[in-house]
Amino acid sequence: MSYPEPRYLGDSGQVSALFRPARPQPDTGWSGTDISYVAKQEHTNGEFGLYKLDMGPKAMGATEHFHRTISESFYVLSGEIRLYNGERWVTGGRGDFLYVPAGGLHAFQNDSDEPVSLLLLFTPGAPREEYFEKAAEYAQRSREELKAFRVRHDQYNTDMLDV
């Protein structure tokens, strides 16, 4: 394995780093889950999107789904989270990691009586913020509107493939 082709061709480097200080409040959330936008794709030149989820006890995450254009990775910061790896449910704890390539079935939820905190990494970056902000709203609409919203956000839930 080798490094990718260079994307910066200058000789002396450039001032281009992004510092994002911690925010006192999450950016959005629903159903017992707070979501903080650590690094949106617009700030990483589309390379990745990084989000922190703080899930309360018994908080629902996402049902079984896959993405066609992005991979999704989970890194558990604290607590225990149930992760579906396409074959079976596993319990992830502090320091555990799950990588799901494009097309990989996955799901997650907090079945415990304790809160859980984890990082979600999407590569390449995708504008997931609208999905996080409006998913609960679209869940109250018709199945057809919900499916169209999910497809627009590269979210293919297996319970809606026939809609």
Q: How many angstroms does the end-to-end distance come to?
A: 42 Å
* Helix content range: 10-25%
Determine the structural class based on helices, strands and strand pairing.
Answer: mainly beta
Just name the CATH architecture of the domain at 28-126: Sandwich
Distinct helical segment count: 2
What Rg, in angstroms, do the CA atoms define? 17 Å
Overall spatial form? globular
Looking at CATH, the homologous superfamily of the domain at 28-126 is Jelly Rolls
The count of strands amounts to 11
CATH class of the domain at 28-126: Mainly Beta
Strands side by side in the biggest sheet:
1-2-3-10-5-8
Low-confidence stretches: none
SSE run: EEEEEEEEEEHHE
The overall average pLDDT, rounded, is 92
CATH domain fold name of the domain at 28-126: Jelly Rolls
Largest sheet: 6 strands, antiparallel
Question: Could you tell me the strand content as a percent range?
Answer: 35-45%
Structure overview:
There is one protein chain. The chain is mainly β. Helix content is 13%, strand content 36%. The strands form two sheets. It has a six-stranded antiparallel β-sheet, covered by helices on one side. Strands 7-6-9-4-11 form a five-stranded antiparallel β-sheet, covered by helices on one side.
